[in-house]
TrEMBL record:
GO terms for MF: ATP binding
Record has Cell membrane as a keyword: yes
Entry keyword annotation includes Cell membrane: yes
Protein source organism: Hydrogenophaga atypica
Protein name as annotated: ABC transporter ATP-binding protein
SUPFAM superfamilies assigned to the protein according to its UniProt record, in alphabetical order: P-loop containing nucleoside triphosphate hydrolases
Keyword annotations of the record: ATP-binding, Cell membrane, Membrane, Nucleotide-binding, Transport
Length: 289
């Protein structure tokens, strides 16, 4: 099969005409989007819209019924790799890391141990070199430690370095999961509902971390999120979905103003405008999805 071309060097991931059918349910219906390098791109939509399914297509947990996903080849090579031809275990090595809606960490290991395990996808040393702890292995170990310490500092986890994950508050575990994903030095970070289970203050912190990850580490973020406050704060572009299909793509403000988006969240546009008039007779502000 010929290698897909990348017509636009700004594009890191390109999904084209993706559809997935589970029996009678068309979970994703002909969805196309590009994620540009260095942006935070967010999928929003009501429950069952197909957001997590799109994530699972990129992680290769699911295979699309039709359509393709291409990813910019790592290491400055030209062209794109067809992600939909790759096996799930190859995804992390290509530079894609993810967090989950329900945190997935080793509960009975320390924060540091979890992060070092996260770093494992980067190990390039062979079995014999690891058994005999050769110079190459030692160098890899030092590099892993340095990277992990950098991430601990970035996400302010110093106080929790030696803590068992099981004993940590939920909000901290959520940051540890983020840290573990960063330790793989991804090009693309997939965040599945980063604010779920967090209180208002922790959600504000999460917005801060996501912005730092983008600005300081230059990592591209593709996120699924329900909290429109967080979405508006951190997203460069948003794709709104409903019933598997794309409703609108644009800046957070553009998408929240889109009549199709308002209708999908709240009912008909007329219902929404009369509701707004009743509740805020003097208000002229834009709709919020
Ligand atoms: N493995 C599966 N088998 C059968 N149906 C599935 C499967 N995964 C998802 N679906 C269905 O596909 C549709 C889209 O689900 P999906 O989880 O992607 O939505 P979502 O937008 O992520 O929703 P939520 O915000 O509630 O997480 C739903 O109707 C769901 O029931």
């Amino acid at each position: 099969m010929s290698q897909p071309q990348n017509p636009n060097a700004d594009v890191l991931l390109s999904a084209q005409n993706l559809s997935v059918r589970f029996g009678g349910v068309l979970a994703v219906n002909n969805v196309s989007f590009d994620v540009k390098r260095g942006e935070v791109f967010t999928l929003i939509g009501p429950n069952g819209a197909g957001k997590t399914t799109v994530f699972n297509l990129i992680s290769r947990i699911y295979t699309p019924t039709s359509g393709t996903i291409d990813f910019a080849a790592p290491g400055g090579q030209s062209g794109m790799l067809r992600l939909t031809d790759k096996a799930p275990h190859e995804i992390a090595k290509l530079g894609i890391a993810r967090t989950f809606q329900n945190i997935e960490l080793f509960e009975h290991a320390t924060v540091l141990q979890n992060l070092l395990i996260g770093r494992h996808t980067h190990r390039r040393t062979g079995l014999w070199s690891e058994i005999f702890f050769t110079g190459k292995t030692r160098a890899a170990e030092i590099e892993a430690r340095e990277k992990v310490e950098q991430v601990i500092e970035l996400l302010d986890l110093q106080h929790h370095r030696e803590s068992m994950v099981a004993g940590l508050p939920y909000g901290v575990r959520k940051v540890v999961e983020l840290a573990r994903a960063l330790c793989t030095e991804p090009q693309l970070l997939l965040l599945d509902e980063p604010s779920s289970g967090l209180n208002v203050e922790e959600t504000d912190d999460m917005a801060f971390w996501i912005t730092d990850i983008k600005d300081e580490l230059g990592i591209t973020v593709l996120m699924v999120e329900h909290d429109m406050g967080l979405v508006s704060k951190v997203s460069d572009r948003v794709l709104a979905m409903s019933m598997g299909a794309e409703l609108a793509t644009g800046t957070p403000a553009e998408v929240q103003r889109d009549p199709g988006v308002i209708e999908a969240y709240l009912g008909s546009v007329d219902d929404v405008s009369s509701l707004r008039r009743e509740n805020h007779p003097k208000s002229h502000t834009g709709a919020s999805a």
